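ok so i was messing around last nite and threw this chain in just to see what happens. nothing serious, just curious
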Amino acid sequence: MNPPKKYENTINVYSVKEKNLVGNRLEKTEDYDLLTVIMIYLGKEEGSTGVLKLLEVLFSPEKDAEEKKRVLREDFSIAMTKRIESEVSEMCNLSKGVEELGISKGITIGRTEGITIGRTEGVTIGIARDIRNLMDNEGWTVERAMSALRVSKEEKDSVLEELNKQMNN
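result:
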């Protein structure tokens, strides 16, 4: 749907070809050429014609069902029967549903990651504050305070970074 500019409005066909490497056996084309791949790279509607423009209109996330039906009717002379109108509307509703599902999933993932990061940063800030208190009030070294608070090896760098921030403020 969003190819690089150099591929926009392009259709490529890939098919299986026989190449005999050893011996003389050749197969009839219809016995092996059962797979053809067609890659359609859509672009901007303005720069396309024919089937590419038709597909770009149908798959456009910016156009609503009524606009798509109008373009199909006016530009492609497609009669808007009840069945075709229904299918265009259903397709638009489906793409809208997929979009909304993707947005919802993205929000959920973002919130989960945000909560995890927030908790991690909150714990780091708290540990650094506790280390600073032990150093200021008890005269402990950073190493002794970290050991007493059981700071893991994985946490040490981020705790030291936060401790430096706190001490410089």
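not much to say yet. The chain has six helices and two strands.
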